[in-house]
Design goal:
This protein is mainly alpha-helical. It has one domain. Helices cover 74% and strands 1% of the residues. The chain has a two-stranded antiparallel ribbon. A hairpin with a 2-residue loop joins strand 1 and strand 2. The protein is elongated.
């Protein structure tokens, strides 16, 4: 199987990175959550105002006959209080996993140090950076070096077939092209923003592990001892990327849940205040007249409705990002759940 078909484009970059640059994933993952919330609320506001112009029963008539604003906004008060309380409670349950006895915390510390030491040994580094972006940068840089060493180990081997030589070159080009793109984007990335996780997603280590193992399985008899050893080193370093990404993903989820709770708490009290104002002071006689051909009561009531759903929209846009990342990283290791090129050795 030609690894270049499923992993690289004509410029040598990774198809995985190209797939992440689509408009749908940009909306779900990269767009600022507050901007995303504002866009959704603006659309809802525009729809509500626009519907008042298509011949439906005038809002002022509905409010006068059945006290429509009361039925709309009284429901929001209970929903906002209950929803905010539930989300914050769930958040606290998730974060409570960080609590534990000193023995548990010490074990976690030791496991983290062991993983860091294993990584440093494989990369032949004295100390790896403490920041997640810097750590991933060094790890991806080490993977790139291993790919280069693997290609060099077979470059002058005249006993290898042209097919195998080309296959190894394609594999090395895929790894180095993907690694360089990720490294470039990680240089200015700061944990807490989405950039670290974004670039971790852009490095398709699972496919690279599979392709390396497939090369050895198909051509093991042709490979020299040095080349076979380089494949082992390549797979070993790639296997370090999976736990590192999962660890930083877990930390990021906790970070985002804290941000979600804070955002809901910031918005909940203003939203409840607006709901109270709409219930106490807005009736069929409020703000008579029109603006831009639209009844002023429509402008006001639509704005109140948008404020009322703001906590729910904030919850949605944060959870959309968390759920999308979780879906794309369900399988750790040599499994690929998303759509990819069908392999030739099935059956």
């Amino acid at each position: 199987m030609d690894t270049s078909d499923s992993n690289t484009d004509e410029s040598g970059g990774s198809a995985e990175h190209d797939q992440l640059n689509g408009p749908r994933l940009y909306l779900l993952l990269r767009l600022n959550r507050w901007l995303f919330t504002g866009i959704v609320l603006a659309i809802v506001y525009g729809v509500l105002v626009g519907l008042s112009q298509i011949g439906l029963t005038p809002l002022r008539v509905i409010v006068a006959s059945s006290n429509g604003t009361f039925w709309i906004f009284s429901a929001f008060i209970g929903a906002i209080i209950t929803g905010t309380s539930i989300v914050v409670t769930i958040n606290q349950l998730v974060l409570s996993q960080e609590l534990g006895a000193v023995g548990d915390q010490r074990e976690r510390m030791q496991e983290a140090m062991n993983f860091r030491q294993d990584t440093e040994d494989e990369l032949e580094e004295d100390v790896t950076p403490p920041e997640p972006a810097g750590f991933l940068y060094e790890l991806v840089d080490g993977i790139e070096d291993e790919a280069t060493d693997f290609e060099s180990a077979v470059a002058d081997d005249t006993d290898l077939s042209d097919e195998l030589q080309e296959r190894i070159r394609d594999y090395a080009d895929d790894v180095t092209g993907n690694a360089r793109t990720v490294k470039e984007n990680l240089e200015d990335a700061q944990f807490g923003t989405f950039e670290v996780i974004w670039n971790a997603l852009a490095f398709n280590y699972s496919r690279k592990i599979y392709d390396a193992r497939q090369i050895r399985a198909d051509h093991g008899e042709e490979l020299s001892d040095e080349a076979d050893e380089e494949i082992d080193e390549m797979i070993t370093v790639l296997k370090l990327f999976g736990p590192a990404r999962e660890h930083f993903k877990t930390l990021y989820f906790q970070w985002e849940l804290i941000n979600l709770s804070r955002a809901l708490l910031y918005v909940a009290v203003p939203a409840l205040t607006v709901m109270g104002l709409m219930l106490m002071y807005v009736d069929a006689n409020a703000l008579p007249g029109t603006t831009l051909g639209v009844d002023n009561l429509v402008w006001l009531t639509s704005a109140g409705f948008v404020v009322g759903i703001a906590p729910f929209v904030i919850f949605i846009v944060y959870i959309l990002r968390i759920a999308t990342v979780a879906k794309r990283t369900l399988a750790m290791g040599p499994f690929i759940l998303r759509e990819s090129a069908r392999d030739e050795d099935l059956g």
